[in-house]
Specification:
Elements lengths: L3 H10 L6 H4 L5 H4 L2 H4 L3 H11 L6 E5 L5 H9 L3 E6 L2 H13 L5 E5 L12 E4 L21 H16 L6 E5 L10 E7 L4 E6 L4
Parallel strand pairs: 1-2, 1-4, 2-3, 4-5
Antiparallel strand pairs: 5-7, 6-7
Protein backbone atom coordinates (compact mmCIF):
# COMPACT_ATOMS: atom_id res chain seq x y z
CA UNK A 1 0.00 0.00 0.00
CA UNK A 2 1.16 3.54 -0.68
CA UNK A 3 -1.18 5.66 1.39
CA UNK A 4 -0.52 9.08 2.91
CA UNK A 5 -0.41 7.57 6.38
CA UNK A 6 2.15 4.95 5.40
CA UNK A 7 4.27 7.75 4.02
CA UNK A 8 4.21 9.34 7.47
CA UNK A 9 5.71 6.25 9.08
CA UNK A 10 8.31 5.94 6.34
CA UNK A 11 9.18 9.60 6.80
CA UNK A 12 9.71 9.10 10.53
CA UNK A 13 11.80 6.00 9.96
CA UNK A 14 13.94 7.99 7.55
CA UNK A 15 14.58 10.60 10.25
CA UNK A 16 12.78 13.28 8.26
CA UNK A 17 10.59 16.02 9.69
CA UNK A 18 6.93 15.22 10.38
CA UNK A 19 4.46 17.64 11.93
CA UNK A 20 1.84 16.70 14.49
CA UNK A 21 -0.88 17.73 12.05
CA UNK A 22 0.49 15.26 9.51
CA UNK A 23 0.96 12.42 11.97
CA UNK A 24 -2.44 12.86 13.61
CA UNK A 25 -4.16 12.08 10.31
CA UNK A 26 -3.88 8.40 11.21
CA UNK A 27 -6.50 8.94 13.93
CA UNK A 28 -10.25 9.48 13.75
CA UNK A 29 -11.21 13.15 13.80
CA UNK A 30 -12.54 13.07 17.38
CA UNK A 31 -9.16 11.83 18.65
CA UNK A 32 -7.20 14.38 16.63
CA UNK A 33 -9.04 17.10 18.54
CA UNK A 34 -7.45 15.85 21.79
CA UNK A 35 -3.92 15.81 20.45
CA UNK A 36 -2.64 19.24 21.47
CA UNK A 37 -3.43 18.73 25.15
CA UNK A 38 -3.26 14.99 25.70
CA UNK A 39 -0.94 13.27 23.19
CA UNK A 40 2.85 13.56 23.05
CA UNK A 41 4.10 15.83 20.23
CA UNK A 42 6.11 14.03 17.56
CA UNK A 43 9.39 15.84 18.26
CA UNK A 44 9.11 15.06 21.99
CA UNK A 45 8.30 11.43 21.30
CA UNK A 46 11.40 11.15 19.10
CA UNK A 47 13.70 12.60 21.77
CA UNK A 48 12.25 10.38 24.48
CA UNK A 49 12.22 7.21 22.40
CA UNK A 50 15.81 7.59 21.25
CA UNK A 51 16.93 7.83 24.88
CA UNK A 52 14.71 5.00 26.12
CA UNK A 53 15.49 2.52 23.33
CA UNK A 54 19.15 2.82 22.33
CA UNK A 55 19.13 -0.71 20.86
CA UNK A 56 16.78 -3.39 19.53
CA UNK A 57 16.69 -5.31 22.82
CA UNK A 58 15.02 -2.49 24.76
CA UNK A 59 11.41 -2.94 25.85
CA UNK A 60 9.72 0.37 26.64
CA UNK A 61 6.48 0.75 28.60
CA UNK A 62 4.31 3.83 28.04
CA UNK A 63 2.41 4.30 31.30
CA UNK A 64 -1.04 5.47 30.22
CA UNK A 65 -0.51 5.25 26.48
CA UNK A 66 -3.72 6.94 25.33
CA UNK A 67 -4.06 6.49 21.57
CA UNK A 68 -0.51 5.19 21.24
CA UNK A 69 1.15 8.21 19.62
CA UNK A 70 4.38 7.94 21.64
CA UNK A 71 4.62 4.20 20.98
CA UNK A 72 4.01 4.56 17.23
CA UNK A 73 6.61 7.28 16.87
CA UNK A 74 9.10 5.37 19.01
CA UNK A 75 8.61 2.20 16.97
CA UNK A 76 9.30 4.15 13.77
CA UNK A 77 12.43 5.99 14.91
CA UNK A 78 14.16 3.23 16.94
CA UNK A 79 14.68 -0.53 16.82
CA UNK A 80 13.23 -1.05 20.31
CA UNK A 81 9.80 -2.45 21.13
CA UNK A 82 7.12 -0.18 22.58
CA UNK A 83 4.28 -1.34 24.78
CA UNK A 84 1.35 0.76 25.95
CA UNK A 85 -0.92 0.18 28.92
CA UNK A 86 -4.19 2.11 28.85
CA UNK A 87 -7.44 1.97 30.86
CA UNK A 88 -9.73 3.13 28.05
CA UNK A 89 -10.62 0.07 25.98
CA UNK A 90 -11.75 2.21 23.04
CA UNK A 91 -8.26 3.73 22.77
CA UNK A 92 -6.62 0.30 22.86
CA UNK A 93 -8.95 -0.90 20.11
CA UNK A 94 -7.88 2.04 17.93
CA UNK A 95 -4.20 1.40 18.68
CA UNK A 96 -4.33 -2.29 17.83
CA UNK A 97 -6.25 -1.59 14.63
CA UNK A 98 -3.66 0.98 13.52
CA UNK A 99 -0.76 -1.34 14.38
CA UNK A 100 -2.32 -4.03 12.21
CA UNK A 101 -3.32 -1.68 9.40
CA UNK A 102 0.17 -0.20 9.05
CA UNK A 103 1.98 -3.46 9.86
CA UNK A 104 4.01 -2.05 12.75
CA UNK A 105 5.60 -5.10 14.38
CA UNK A 106 7.35 -3.55 17.38
CA UNK A 107 4.31 -2.16 19.24
CA UNK A 108 1.68 -3.72 21.47
CA UNK A 109 -1.15 -2.29 23.56
CA UNK A 110 -2.95 -3.65 26.59
CA UNK A 111 -6.25 -2.54 28.12
CA UNK A 112 -5.35 -2.78 31.79
CA UNK A 113 -4.99 -0.86 35.04
CA UNK A 114 -1.38 0.10 35.71
CA UNK A 115 -1.49 -1.65 39.10
CA UNK A 116 -1.80 -4.96 37.27
CA UNK A 117 1.40 -4.45 35.28
CA UNK A 118 4.73 -5.81 36.54
CA UNK A 119 7.52 -3.44 35.56
CA UNK A 120 10.27 -6.06 35.66
CA UNK A 121 9.35 -7.15 32.12
CA UNK A 122 10.57 -3.79 30.76
CA UNK A 123 13.84 -1.91 30.41
CA UNK A 124 12.55 1.65 30.18
CA UNK A 125 9.48 3.76 30.94
CA UNK A 126 7.73 6.83 29.55
CA UNK A 127 5.61 8.89 31.94
CA UNK A 128 3.50 11.75 30.55
CA UNK A 129 1.49 12.62 33.65
CA UNK A 130 -1.19 9.96 32.97
CA UNK A 131 -2.97 10.13 36.33
CA UNK A 132 -3.48 13.85 36.66
CA UNK A 133 -7.02 13.90 35.35
CA UNK A 134 -7.96 12.39 38.70
CA UNK A 135 -7.21 15.72 40.37
CA UNK A 136 -7.48 18.31 37.58
CA UNK A 137 -10.88 18.91 35.97
CA UNK A 138 -9.45 20.68 32.91
CA UNK A 139 -7.59 17.50 31.90
CA UNK A 140 -10.58 15.14 31.86
CA UNK A 141 -10.76 13.24 28.56
CA UNK A 142 -14.14 11.55 28.96
CA UNK A 143 -16.33 9.74 31.49
CA UNK A 144 -15.43 6.17 30.57
CA UNK A 145 -13.05 5.59 33.50
CA UNK A 146 -13.38 6.19 37.22
CA UNK A 147 -11.66 9.32 38.53
CA UNK A 148 -10.90 10.42 42.09
CA UNK A 149 -7.98 11.90 44.01
CA UNK A 150 -7.33 8.65 45.81
CA UNK A 151 -6.61 6.94 42.50
CA UNK A 152 -4.01 9.57 41.62
CA UNK A 153 -2.18 8.77 44.85
CA UNK A 154 -2.58 5.00 44.52
CA UNK A 155 -1.36 4.89 40.92
CA UNK A 156 1.54 7.23 41.62
CA UNK A 157 2.60 5.16 44.64
CA UNK A 158 2.46 1.97 42.58
CA UNK A 159 4.64 3.43 39.84
CA UNK A 160 7.11 4.69 42.45
CA UNK A 161 7.37 1.26 44.09
CA UNK A 162 7.81 -0.54 40.78
CA UNK A 163 10.51 1.88 39.63
CA UNK A 164 12.23 1.62 42.99
CA UNK A 165 12.45 -2.15 42.49
CA UNK A 166 13.67 -1.91 38.89
CA UNK A 167 17.12 -3.06 37.85
CA UNK A 168 20.23 -0.91 37.50
CA UNK A 169 20.33 0.67 34.06
CA UNK A 170 16.57 1.17 33.80
CA UNK A 171 15.76 4.33 31.86
CA UNK A 172 12.91 6.75 32.50
CA UNK A 173 11.60 9.84 30.72
CA UNK A 174 9.09 12.14 32.43
CA UNK A 175 7.21 14.80 30.46
CA UNK A 176 5.09 17.61 31.92
CA UNK A 177 4.99 15.63 35.12
CA UNK A 178 4.69 17.49 38.40
CA UNK A 179 6.04 14.38 40.00
CA UNK A 180 8.98 14.72 42.39
CA UNK A 181 8.78 11.14 43.56
CA UNK A 182 11.27 9.58 41.16
CA UNK A 183 13.08 7.05 43.36
CA UNK A 184 16.45 8.17 44.73
CA UNK A 185 18.24 5.46 42.79
CA UNK A 186 17.52 7.30 39.53
CA UNK A 187 20.08 9.84 38.36
CA UNK A 188 18.89 12.83 36.33
CA UNK A 189 20.90 12.74 33.11
CA UNK A 190 19.62 16.00 31.65
CA UNK A 191 16.54 18.14 31.14
CA UNK A 192 15.09 19.72 28.01
CA UNK A 193 12.27 22.13 27.12
CA UNK A 194 12.82 24.35 30.15
CA UNK A 195 12.71 21.35 32.43
CA UNK A 196 9.46 19.89 31.09
CA UNK A 197 11.23 16.84 29.67
CA UNK A 198 13.54 14.93 32.02
CA UNK A 199 15.80 11.95 31.28
CA UNK A 200 16.76 9.53 34.06
CA UNK A 201 18.86 6.38 34.50
CA UNK A 202 18.80 4.08 37.52
CA UNK A 203 22.32 3.91 38.92
CA UNK A 204 21.72 2.63 42.47
CA UNK A 205 19.57 0.03 44.14
CA UNK A 206 18.62 -3.39 42.87
Amino acid sequence: MDTYNNIIFRTLAGNLETTDEEFDQIYPEELRALSALHWTPVHIAKLAAEFLAPNANCKVLDIGSGVGKFCFVGAAVTKGSFHGVEQRSSFVTVCNALAAQYEIPNVSFKNENITNIAFDAFDAFYFFNPFYENVEQTLIIDDTVQRKEGLFLAYSDYVYQQLDQSKIGTRLVTYHSIWDDVPNGFQLEYRSLNGDLSFWTKTEGQ
